[in-house]
Design goal:
Helices cover 45% and strands 24% of the residues. It has helices at 3-15, 18-25, 29-43, 59-83, 98-103, 105-115, 128-136, 186-197, 211-219, 229-233, 248-251, 267-274, 282-286; strands at 48-51, 54-57, 90-96, 119-125, 142-146, 154-169, 177-180, 204-207, 225-228, 241-245, 252-260. Helix 1 (3-15) crosses helix 2, helix 1 packs across helix 3 and helix 1 (3-15) crosses helix 4 (59-83).
């Protein structure tokens, strides 16, 4: 089974037909058809149901697609990992919660590039839930997410413990609205639990897309939020905000660096983990 055949099969499956796949792969339809036919003959099973020009995966095709995704991503990761041996060149794909990216990622990336000057970090910010899925689908090499996280296909290593604080506006009336990131945010789940446990079931929940947007709305009294203390202390709105300490069951949220258990070992990931071992990390002062 050749990787080129699996890549062709994956594209056909995702595009739902040979014509669309041929355009995406910049080849003629006959090449696509021949590769799919050889793959079916090699596996001695049909991979698609054919309905006119439309193709739909058979149960065998669905199973193969799962493994094809893994093999294709492992090929890419293997290439990256090999390049990182010795001089550590190439690309590393990292994910981060927006709050972590805003206050901690700059220092981490700066230090990472000092250690591996030929390594190019690619950064994606998303909710913890979305980043976990990206790791499972091999779209990222590593991601910083809010914990706890338990999944049989993930390696989860705690790098620090964030303290969430209750944040509201100073000296002005505050609306009874919780302002948070959308579904999938680890801090949102902790904030909703805090609301439930305190009997505030009628509190409105507002969704916003950026950390500074959330704090800006909180600063003018549109609501309150739960965010890491470090984020608030480094915000331009700090003078307009009041911080309240929460009980440990709400305030203590571990930040994890997660990777796929089947992913190739990468020097860049190990370097990132090592940065959290110092009492006063260099990357903190660099940020």
């Amino acid at each position: 089974m050749e990787l080129i055949s699996l890549k062709t099969f994956k594209t056909v499956a995702e595009q739902g037909g040979v014509l669309a796949a041929s355009k995406l792969l910049h080849t003629v339809q006959s090449n696509i058809t021949a590769r799919i036919k050889r793959l079916e003959e090699e596996l001695d099973t049909a991979l698609f149901y054919r309905k006119g020009r439309k193709l739909k995966l058979t149960p065998a095709g669905t199973t193969l697609l799962e493994y094809a995704n893994k093999l294709i991503q492992l090929e890419q990761q293997a290439g990256i990992a090999v390049k990182q041996v010795g001089e550590s060149a190439g690309e590393i794909r990292l994910g981060s919660m927006e709050s972590f990216a805003a206050v901690r990622m700059p220092g981490l990336v700066q230090t990472l590039r000092k250690v591996h000057p030929k390594l190019l970090p690619r950064i994606k910010t998303e909710t913890s839930g979305a980043l976990i899925q990206d790791i499972l689908d091999y779209r990222l090499d590593g991601a910083f997410v809010g914990g706890p996280v338990e999944h049989k296909d993930l390696i989860c290593r705690q790098v620090l413990m964030e303290e969430l604080v209750l944040v509201s506006a100073k000296n002005i009336p505050v609306a009874d609205s919780l302002i948070m990131f959308r579904e999938g945010c680890a801090y949102r789940e902790r904030a909703l639990r805090w609301l439930r446990d305190n009997g505030r079931i009628d509190t409105e929940v507002m969704n916003m897309g950026t950390q500074e947007g959330i704090l800006g709305c909180v600063a003018v009294g549109l609501g309150f939020t739960l965010v890491p203390r470090k984020v608030v202390e480094e915000s331009k709105y700090i003078d307009d905000l009041n911080l309240e300490v929460l009980a440990p069951e709400y305030s203590q949220v571990p930040t994890l660096l997660i990777t796929h258990k089947d992913a190739a070992s990468m020097a860049g990931i190990e370097t990132l983990l090592g940065m959290f071992e110092d009492v006063i990390p260099e990357w903190e002062s660099a940020a």
